[in-house]
Amino acid sequence: xxxxxxxxxxxxxxxxxxxxxxxxxxxxxxxxxxxxxxxxxxxxxxxxxxxxxxxxxxxxxxxxxxxxxxxxxxxxxxxxxxxxxxxxxxxxxxxxxxxxxxxxxxxxxxxxxxxxxxxxxxxxxxxxxxxxxxxxxxxxxxxxxxxxxxxxxxxxxxxxxxxxxxxxxxxxxxxxxxxxxxxxxxxxxxxxxxxxxxxxxxxxxxxxxx
Length: 210
Fold this sequence. Notes:
By secondary structure, this protein is of the alpha+beta class.
């Protein structure tokens, strides 16, 4: 459930995690999941299907997006800007940014978006899951984007394993030497709570986590 506490703002769950009081109901779990799926689609993949315009950095007007969803999806006839803002602010993956009435997704795009204004990576090492079959190839050729426009790296071994388990039971975890890569001029950006992106990572910065 998505709700709003008058004192502590938006939250997900039954009660405000700060004061433990019941807040004002905004959306149930199904509505949160459905709206999130639609918003991700607009901001990452197909804004044109909703007649939404994004600028070169992926920013779209929240009110324009609200109207587009409301007009196209009958189920969301009640949608207000507050619902979109609340969804973005409480997203556990930190995949949205809000600024001056605009919103954007910060990673996993399949459309061309300039994300060079994201903050630089702030860690020495990052992680990437591969299968055993892929490991040898990647260690020779480096990491390149596959189904997205960027290489997506995890901030922890645990998150990399979690991501890898969507494909294989026991993923091999590659370690990215971020400090050395960035010293050599490789651009790596922090794009989410635990997600980092780069155009590519050369093989010389990769090793297998033991």
